[in-house]
Amino acid sequence: MTGLIGILLFICVSLIVWGIAEAKYKNIHFEHSEEEHKEEALLAEERKEHGDKEMSIRDVIKNISCKGYKAV
């Protein structure tokens, strides 16, 4: 009998906590910062520059800013 009460208590507490979490989630309003908008514009510009194609590993190596000891 105590096991059944424990399970019911666990389910009740879980539902209450879940309800509180859902209420908090609905009250959160997320907005992107200005830096994120600038970065998104930069990424869109890079996509246009490369023609929206997937680059091969050789293209990636040509475009990365760090090239091992040569970067130093």
Please explain how this structure is put together.
By secondary structure, the protein is an all-alpha fold. The chain is 67% helix and 0% strand. The chain is elongated and about 70 Å long.
DSSP strand tally = 0
Structural class: mainly alpha
Mean pLDDT: 84
Structure annotation, total helices: 3
Spatial separation of the terminal alpha carbons:
71 Å
The biggest sheet amounts to: none
Q: How would you classify the quaternary structure?
A: single chain
Q: Rounded to an integer, what's the Rg over CA atoms?
A: 26 Å
Essential attributes:
72 residues
Itemize the secondary structure elements and their pairings.
Blueprint: H1 2-26, H2 34-49, H3 57-63
Structure at a glance:
The chain is mainly α and 72 residues long. The protein has helices spanning 2-26, 34-49, 57-63.
